[in-house]
Write a structure and sequence with these properties.
Elements: H1 2-36, H2 41-69, H3 74-105, H4 116-138, H5 141-171, H6 176-208
Amino acid sequence: MRLKFDEELNNLNREMILMGSMCEDAINTAIRALIKGDPDGHKNVSAIVTEISHKEREIEDMCLKLLMQQQPVATDLRTISSALKMVSDLERIGDQSDDIAEIVSMQNISDADDKYEILDLGQAASRMVTGAVDAFVKRDEKAAREVIKEDDTVDDYFDKIKKELAKSIQTDEAGLEKTLDLLMISKYFERIGDHAVNIAQWVIFSVTGVLEGNTK
């Protein structure tokens, strides 16, 4: 029975990796759409997000079956309950990637020349997602804490971008709509980083049994 349970836990890990890679794909597709000002990027991201939603339900079903069919020990129980929490954050990451691509599809920012730090912000947030999922699969508390530290970098980017966009409004009132779109995109990337922090905190809980801080 234990061998079968371990096999099912390994399968859960594989599905978590797959869902994490889908989220990375959604983020990176949104980033590419932003770089190119590509309105068709929204359609591509939306298709990925549909797959993410299906995967969330599959993983939830797997976790519930593991809880009902087996007698998990404390560490197993923490792993399964953490996975249930994490898929919710991963699903939200997909949604926010879709929101970014939708803004890009409106074409107000296709010729914006001030996107580049926002791209750095997006790439930093994407790295956090990758790191958080990797930490879960490897049960790596140290890697999870590195993801949490990386949130400071994302927050610094966001604060700097906010200030720069505030200045641009003062000098270019005609570009207000474009500036607000860029600000919203930045905020969505910042929220993706917050969800990666949540995932990392659940990784630490799954390893130590202690939930540190408040999930965002």
